[in-house]
Amino acid sequence: MSQMESAVARPSPANFYPSPPTSPQPVKRTEKAAPRSSFSKKSEPTLDFGSVVSPESRGNCATPVTSSESTPSESTPSESTPPESTPSESITSDSTPFESTPSDSTENRASKDEESEAEQLIQWKEALAISNGKCGAIRKSDRETCSNPMPAEKTQEMDDIIKLLCKPCNSSLQIETHLDSLAQLAHCQYHDHPPFREARISNWLKVLPGGPRPPSLQRRLLLILGPAPVKCTSITKDGNHCRNNIAQARKSDAQKTVRKMIEMAMGSIEQESSLTHLAEVWQHYTLCHAHLKYSFKTQDDWVKRLKEFRMACQSEMNSRLEEEKLKAKEATAANDKADEVILASPPPTPRSRLVHKSPRTFWDGVYETSQFKILGKYEVIDKSLFTVAMVAREQLNTEDDKSKNEINDGFVYLYQVSGNDSLVKIGFTTGQVARRLEGWKKDCHREPAQLYPALDAVCKAVPHAHRVERLVHAELMEHRVRVYCEPCEKQHIEWFKVSVKHAVAVIEKWSLWIQRRPYEKRETRQSVKWSLKAEEAKCLADIAGHSEIPERTGESLASKAE
């Protein structure tokens, strides 16, 4: 065999990249070529000339190692070699500097979520008319919106409640609960109790973003009957509507009857009386004192509303009982092999066994024992004007109005009511303490327990009783709270969250101090003025800071008086 034939017969190295004849290049063996059948026309690489490959990313491409970079024209793949990966194929999200990393995209999404949430808050605040930072409650006096500013420290709490309202899965009752909390935060201290909040909630339910919301079952039933009547619901002999007011205690009993009917409809309490009987009880407690003595005829409007309300309650009761029967039937079918069958709920009391007390005595002797709704601390515009020193140095008020006059003698009293053992009421009266407490009992429909003066003590009136009360209130200002009393539908501000022992000690201290006659009378032709004596003003700081028990307080003050 000739040298030429041996050269032709010698197998050429596979997968070698040819070098130009003028500049010999080192060669590199690549991986074994894949079978040709694994490549198709669709998988042929295409060059993306718009892509830019950085020097750092070029190392990731499957290019041969040469002394000088090869161009696509210099290395054309043959049929026996696999196609080289193109720049467009080798570029990934990790190696491209122009694409965002996962952390960047997460930050962008978080930023967009924050912007969307902020826009949603603005939308809801504008819809609820609270974006101007004003109270916005409707005043009773002129039916105008209150312009008192909202407390700035409550802004974050309001935003949190609005975020809860934005959730699409809220039930009607949850929405009303959130709106009630929002109204209490948004309204000023003069309008943050339930009557004003309820009126605001009714307006808000109509203007919520996304359309009006349906009322809850409880609100729907209350809307049927409407607000509690203020005037007597009877008709006079001449056929006109009675214009007498309903006593506050009777009005409270009528409201309790309505709540009882709603609770029965919702299944919250056991059925003790029929709805028909409770409707008769409501009619009785919406009469004035004059129409309680003889048979009466209720006004047609109230008869219609009461009948509709009773039927709606009965319908809810029937549907609930049907659901309970169905559940009990399913439970029985599932446990038919068991020895005992457990009902979903106890069966309702048969109507023949229901106790029907006379409407006239249904609520007799039953006083309110529910907890006060604490609205917050008693807030004043300038607390420096209500310190002990400022109150003590003021001239005594000489107005004829007994509730303001500070010259008259009287008694400072303290009492508690059932269901609110942590709170005490401190007030004053120029009359008998027992008579004053009887008035509170009638107005608030709560039975007071007198704690000071003691019932068996021989009471002696103290001079300047109203000034003593004001000094006690000033010293206990940090413990003062505003409470809402549901029976009288008013808020009270003379309640304190303090122990009885501490409250009695403060009352005793200032009662003993006032007996020293620290104020002197100065008469002129124009007026009479009572001013604090100079020597008393000097030792006022020591007395104001005194915090020992009443017995020692008395000894200490007595020694100073000597």
UniProtKB/TrEMBL annotation:
Residues 63-97 have a biased composition (Low complexity). InterPro entries: Meiosis_regulatory, Phage_T5_Orf172_DNA-bd. Residues 418-510 form the Bacteriophage T5 Orf172 DNA-binding domain. Pfam families: T5orf172. Residues 1-119 are annotated as: Disordered. It comes from the Eukaryota. This is Bacteriophage T5 Orf172 DNA-binding domain-containing protein. It comes from Beauveria bassiana. The lineage of its organism: Eukaryota, Fungi, Dikarya, Ascomycota, Pezizomycotina.
